[in-house]
Design goal:
Blueprint: E1 12-13, E2 21-22, E3 43-46, H1 52-60, E4 64-65, E5 78-80, H2 87-91, E6 98-99, H3 106-109, H4 111-125, E7 136-139, H5 143-156, E8 164-168, E9 178-180, E10 192-196, E11 203-204, E12 207-220, E13 223-228, E14 232-235, H6 248-251, H7 255-258, E15 276-278, H8 279-289, H9 293-309, E16 323-331, E17 337-344, H10 353-369, H11 379-385, H12 416-420, E18 469-471, E19 476-478, E20 556-557, E21 560-564, H13 568-576, H14 579-598, H15 604-611, H16 630-638
Length: about 650
């Protein structure tokens, strides 16, 4: 299988008005947004409330915005919504279209569902792996459990209580959040999640911060995860102080809150103005501390992978969808990363220079991950001109033909006089290429007879049409090889040459070929030109040193780094959604990285076993500015 999720080469593609067939492996991808040759621009459609940045980036790439009054409903390539799509939107998706959400990802996007799923995974695989989320309780359902934990902690610490943070489950941007120590201060009027508050965060010049990590899930089946190299570091705008729990500017890092604070515009020590850094600047800070940066990034990588594994089996398999998550990670003073929450449709507003640096590149690379092809610029018209013959929505089974089989010829081969001789037949569909480019093959009968036109076209994929021979005496067409024709949905097939011209009709030919007249001269035969469009080679990215292997995702697209699957074992686990196998491999990889930095060497056979051995994937370790490969890491472990 090929690279999963969106418009893969060689996947089963189904189009309205044409029969379901496999796309050719040579179908070209678009590196830029504009079309090539005669193709037009790609079209995007934004729902109300969609980020303005998406429109800005796509217009800069040469896209055109969807005009609802002037264009048909499905005449777009990308539909972007901040909220979830309806089930009907997924059912109607076409091969040239993309949606920016997978269905049912609320399993980690809502705070209460995230807590429930992580608790379940912790019970299944143990707290040694799933120990990256603070203990959480969903109230009011878990109130008794929370009261037991609260009382147990106070007894164990001589009456001194812990700090807790309360968050409404369905609100975002820091709304409704408060911190408390005494249970008498816990007051709520809606469903909330209460978490142990991390009271020992890592501080920079006394300011609390967290990391916004951007994660793209290209497919849930097979599971394919990319993490963005760049990201944001979000600061509180007042110094951390546990003595002032009501001061949200000291404890919360949400930009929507801190940009309203009194010290947002002041030049804070080592932080500067505003409340954001880029992840690149944070890397420089880590290097100045001399800590094990690679191990920290791998721990964050594990958090992302293990969290997504919790919901992967419950997500319906949908092609042509992509999901951008925002993972909020807090690092404590012991350099242990904690997952705070997962954001559905992370904010893409531009509040400062760090936003511009990070988010514009993020959207550009996200569009590159969508794997658009040359033919997608033509949308339905392009796919009808290719070799797709049956309407069927992605993810559903092809329906049996409901109409008699027909074979189709270019319009120039069929005059109106011929269509009058063919009652009961209608509709002309074309294959790739323009029908206007065909030579006129119809010629009058020399004996004046009114015999019907018998014709056959070879409709096999991956090859051009064979020459059609015309006999003057009886106006018969023959083909050197005759194959079983493919069915066409009469309700949808239409002539792409001109919408205003009358449609021609051809009867279904007999499977027997017409015998060639031995007296026929070779000059009497007219050859039709090949109708397949020019084949373009897919773009080769500079970081791809190896030839792309079918079924193996690209290790890097822009600043998106493939983090799962990362070896042959996880590749098989992602295809079969074997969660246990995937979790075990994540644990082995972390152990390998930890041992490489603490022991200095390992035996080769042990290294191969830990990393999954030699495989087809060139796995890059996400996090460092220049991501090393797993192979180079293994070689480093072998040094004495």
């Amino acid at each position: 299988m090929n690279e999963p999720g969106i418009g893969e080469e060689g996947e089963r593609v189904e189009v309205e008005g044409v029969c379901n067939l496999s796309a050719p492996d040579t179908a070209p991808e678009l590196e830029m947004a504009t079309g090539v040759g005669e193709t037009g621009p790609l079209v995007f459609r934004l729902h109300e409330g969609a980020p303005e940045l998406v429109r800005e980036v796509l217009l800069e790439r040469g896209w055109r915005e969807f005009a609802e009054q002037r264009q048909e409903e499905g005449d777009w390539n990308l539909y972007w919504r901040s909220a979830a799509f309806r089930n009907a939107d997924y059912d109607k998706i076409m091969p040239w279209q993309r949606l920016n959400h997978h269905p049912k990802t609320v399993g980690i996007a809502r705070k209460d569902w995230l807590a429930r799923n992580l608790r379940r995974m912790r019970g299944t695989f143990g707290s040694a792996l799933y120990n990256f989320s603070p203990i959480s309780f969903n109230l009011p359902n878990d109130y008794i459990r929370f009261l037991e934990e609260y009382s147990k902690h106070r007894l164990a610490n001589g009456g001194e209580g812990a700090y807790w943070i309360c968050k409404p489950v369905d609100l975002s941007r820091g709304r409704g959040i408060f911190i408390f120590e005494d249970i008498k201060d816990l007051v709520y009027d809606c469903s909330v999640t209460v978490q142990r508050y991390i009271s020992n965060p890592l501080l920079i010049s006394g300011y609390k911060f967290d990391l916004r990590i951007y994660v793209c899930v290209k497919s849930f089946s097979p599971l394919t995860i990319y993490m963005y190299q760049e990201g944001l570091v979000r600061f509180a705008t007042e110094k951390f102080n546990l003595g002032a729990l009501n001061n949200l500017y000291s404890h919360l890092t949400n930009t929507s809150i801190n940009k309203l604070g009194p010290f947002y515009s002041t030049d804070k020590e080592h932080i500067g103005e505003g409340c954001k850094w880029t992840l690149s600047k944070f890397r420089c800070f880590l290097q100045s501390l001399g800590i094990n940066e690679l191990l920290l990034w791998q721990k964050i990588n594990n958090i992302v992978t293990l969290t997504l594994l919790a919901i992967a089996p419950s997500i319906p398999s949908r092609r042509n969808c992509i999901e951008l998550f925002g993972f909020d990670i807090l690092i404590d003073e012991n350099f242990k990363p904690w997952l705070l929450e997962v954001n559905y449709s992370p904010a893409l507003s531009l509040d400062c220079s760090a936003d511009i640096t990070v988010k514009k590149g993020l959207i550009n690379d996200l569009v590159d991950l969508m794997n658009y092809k040359e033919i997608d610029c033509l949308r339905q018209r392009g796919y009808l001109k290719q070799k797709y013959k049956r309407p069927c929505y992605l993810g559903s089974q092809a329906l049996p033909p409901r109409s008699p089989q027909v074979l189709l010829l270019p319009r120039c081969l069929c005059k109106e006089s011929i269509s009058e001789k063919c009652p009961g037949h209608s509709h002309l569909s074309t294959r790739a290429g323009s029908t206007d480019s065909f030579a006129t093959a119809h010629q009058p009968s020399q004996d004046g007879s009114n015999e019907n036109l018998n014709c056959a076209l070879q409709l096999s994929l991956g090859s051009s049409l064979k020459p059609v021979a015309l006999r003057h005496g009886c106006r018969k067409l023959r083909l050197s090889h005759l194959q079983k024709p493919e069915t066409v949905d009469h309700s949808r097939a239409h002539d792409l040459g001109s919408e205003n011209e009358s449609r021609s009709c051809i009867s279904t030919p007999d499977k027997r070929t017409v015998k060639k007249n031995p007296k026929q001269k070779s000059s009497s035969f007219l050859k039709l030109p090949p109708i397949h469009g020019h084949k373009y080679k897919p773009p080769i990215y500079p970081w791809d040193n190896k030839v792309k292997i079918p079924g193996v995702p690209l290790s890097r697209v822009g600043d998106f780094i493939l983090t799962f699957p990362f070896n042959d074992v996880t590749l098989r686990a992602s295809q079969a959604l074997n969660i246990k196998m995937a979790v075990q491999e994540v644990y082995k990889l972390t152990k390998l990285i930890h041992s490489c930095h603490h022991k200095g060497k390992r035996r080769k056979e042990d290294t191969d076993r830990q990393s999954g051995g030699e495989g087809k994937l060139e796995f890059l370790l996400w996090g460092p500015r220049n991501p090393p490969s797993l192979t180079s890491l293994s070689d480093c472990c072998l040094k004495t």
